Structures are given as structure tokens and as C-alpha cells.
Fold this protein.
Amino acid sequence: MKQPRQRRKSRPQPLAQATPATPQIRAEHDITGIASSGDHAVNIQNWADRITVLSAEAFAPMSEVDAPHGLTNLPERPALFVGRAAELARLDAALAGPGGVGVQAMHGLGGVGKSTLAGRWATDHSAEHTLTWWITADTLAGIDIGLASLASALQPASAGFLPAEALRKRGVQWLASHQDWLVVLDNVSDPADIVPLLAQAPSGKYLITSRRATGWHNLAESVRLDVLDPGEAQDLLTQIITSAGPCDLDGAAELARVSDDHGRG
């Protein structure tokens, strides 16, 4: 006797899964919708809410990006500044004027005024440069942060979407493809830290400050910055002491002389 044929049960088909809505970035001026039907259709409006539309200029090649007029992040100019006429003149001779290319390093003991002098010269000559950018360069991480900040300032729309490393590279690319800019590398700990930047972007001007007196050979013109001479030191002390009003200046000259001896000793 034949056994009745059993009907093969069909396996249930898995339901189509809707693709999770993830943020998308489009550097275009239109948004293309996604059409689907059925119980698992994706809501087009929900997708649109998660799409950020950026103009093509937000990711334009850095060679095509012009710096906004007067772009700078220089620290606030100190209210008190005396002397340094010879040092300022030397910086003028090395770096002043459009079209020039140079790397100038000032080295000296901590506290002698290297950063103050660099900020003073950079501020006085900012109109001569397409861009003036200050980077705290005591560590490799600090240099990278400064370059990434430069890229963000040049293309603000890209700052929230590109990782820090990509921004750093774009900062270097801008420097490499433009001229007549000034970058201040403040408080460099090791000259080797800035060799890659100087090699990749050699078309502008660098003003470097450092406590290191060695390591600048074949890398930068270097000048030692000493303490102020006694007359200038007394003048600065007088301005500091009297900034809040008249007061007794007895001993200011002796203090200036002792400070000068200590700094040169």
C-alpha cells in the first residue's frame, strides 16, 4: 500500500530588514530620496533628517582656499615692551618684506622674553602676510594641534567632520601651496620635531623660539636672546611698578643690575 505523499513544508523566508538610518554627508546641493514599500519601508524623512548637506567649497583642495583677510591667532600684545631694538632690526632684515622665504630661530634662557619678542614682531608685520599663525610647538602633539587648528580656521565647515589627522594634513597642504605667510613656532623643545613641517611647507616664513641653543645648523638662522641690559631692565621695572600709580622706586636700579648679572652668569 502506497503511503500518502507528505507535502513538503516551505521554510519561512526571513523578513527584509530595514537598513538603519545612519548620518550621511553630501557635498552637493540636492538630496536624492530613497523609495521603498511594504511593512519595512524606510521613512525618507527620517533619512533626510540625518543628512548634513555641505557645499563643495567645504572640502575644496587646500591649494584653492584663500585665507580670510587678516586671519591670525596671535596672543594678545603685551602692554609693556621696552628695548630689543637690535633684535627687532635683525628680524626685519631676515624676514620682513613680501615674497621672502626664511626660518629664524631665537634661543635663550627661559623668561628672557623670546615669546614676547616674537609676538611683537609678528603683530607689527601682520599686514605683510596673507596669514599669521601661532603654534605652541613644545611637543609633537602641540604642533599637530596647531596645524589642525589652522585647517579648521581656513575651512570651518569641515572642522566638525574630519578627524584631527586629516585636518593636520590639510593644514600642511595649505602652507605648502601658498606663499607670504608667517608661522610662529613657539617654545620648540627639539629642532627635530619641526623638520618634517619645514620640509613639506618651505614656501613661507617661520619664526621659532626655543631654549635650545644647538641643533639649528642647516635648519634655521639662529640668534641668541640675552636678558635686557640694566638700563632697559630698570625702565621695564619702573613701568611695571608704577602701572598702578606712583610709588617708591628706591632699589629698582640695583634690582635691574642683579637680574642682569644673574641672567648672564
In short: The chain has two domains: 72-224, 230-264.
